Structure formats: C-alpha cells, structure tokens
Amino acid sequence: MLLHFPQDIFLLILQELVIQDILSLRSTCKSLFEAIEDRSVWLYVVQDIVSVLPLPLDYQRHLTTMPIDDLKRLALREAHLNACWHLGDMSCRHLRESTCDLDSDAIYLLPGGDWLVGVIWRKSGSSMGLRSLNTSSSPIVVQIPIPEAKGLHLLEYYLAFSDQRKPLLVLSIGEKFVKLSPSSDCYCR
Predict the structure, then answer these.
(1) What residues does the F-box domain cover (predicted)?
(2) Which residue in 138, 139, 171, 174 is deepest, having the highest Cβ count within 10 Å?
C-alpha cells in the first residue's frame, strides 16, 4: 500500500519514522526493502541523528558525499547505541585498562574512546598531550605546545566540538580562548 504513493510522499512518510520503524518496514517485503535503499532515506536518518547529538564522526568527509553503505552503517550503529543507552542495566560491558604516562592537570577521553587528552599547565611551558588507546598497536603519545599568554592565568578548560564536529579542547586564558584539536594546530580567538 505504501508503494502506491508517489515517491516524494513516500519519502516524507519515511522521514517521520524512527530508525527502528524504518528497519521493521524494510524487513516486511522485497519491494519495501528496495524502496528504502534510496540514499536520501539514510542521509536524512543520519542528519537527523547528527542534528540532535554530536557524534564522534570523521567529518573530513561530508555526510552528503558519504556512500550509502557508510550512511546505513552509521545509522545502525547510532540506533544500537541509543537502544543500549536506554537499557535498565547500565553495568559495564567492556572494560579496557591502560596506564597513562601523561603527567597532567586534567585528562579527557575523546569521543570514540581511542584518545586521551592531558592538559599540562606549567609556568615554564604548557602543553596538551595526546595518547592513543588503540590496543592493536603500541601507544602513540604526542605533545602539542600551548601558546603562551604572558601575565594571564588559566581560568578553565573543557572539551567541546568544532563546527565540523571534531573534538576540541578549549582553554580560557584571561579573555583569550585557545582551541586545541588533535587533528590540527591550535588557534586563538
């Protein structure tokens, strides 16, 4: 019956469904399965997720250029994450221990769970340390110097996201903000 609607109406109906309903509808018959394979359906689902939650995505590739298989994989992963998050049992399913050789005043775990960021704030020179938690290879440790702000003191630091939804460490130094990203150089504002 749904397939008798014009395609634009059918797509508007799909946009109102949550991903679990789209998956259920997709599994009912071959015709609906093929109709839901439209790239715009999955692009809308992922854009809807991203509009609500900042995700640990690799935004070097824009969503609009992402292949349909990657869009589906991302949508399914986020649906699974959302379903697990709302379970009554919040006990730990996976625990990974790692020693941290970062001498830090504060440590943050970046989204995705693959990197630790340590902030080292000293009068002699401050830096941000990155340490990979990837267990498949030896840990990578990177030290990134933080630009000096003479005569100013660190007020606060916190984890945020850039406009491209990449993790940033924001340092508030007086009236300056220093934004540090693991994937690029720092910049001040």
Answers:
(1) 1-45
(2) 171
Distance CA 49, CA 47 (A): 5
For residue 117, which of 132, 107, 126, 125 has the smallest C-alpha distance?
107
Residues 50 and 121 in one domain: no
- pTM for this model (two decimals): 0.46
Residues 18 and 68 placed together within one structural domain of the fold? yes
Same domain, 78 and 117: no
Q: Side chain identity at 47, as an amino acid letter?
A: Q
**Is the pLDDT higher at 135 or at 13?**
13
Residue 155, sorted as left (phi over 0), alpha (psi -120 to 50) or beta, turns out to be alpha
Q: How far is CA 100 from the centre of its chain?
A: 23
182 and 114 share one domain: yes
Domain coverage including residue 176: 106-188
Per-residue pLDDT at 78: 79
Burial of 93 (0-12, 13-18, 19+ CB in 10 A): exposed
Model pLDDT for residues 82-139, shown as the tens digit of each residue = 777 766 666 666 666 656 555 667 777 776 677 777 777 666 666 767 777 766 656 5
Q: What pLDDT, on a 0 to 100 scale, did the predictor assign at position 189?
A: 42
Question: Tell me, what amino acid is at 142?
Answer: V
Three-state SS sequence of 65-134? HCCHHHHHHHHHHHHHHHHHHCCCCCCCCCCCCCCCCCCCCEEEECCCCCEEEEEECCCCCCEEEEEECC
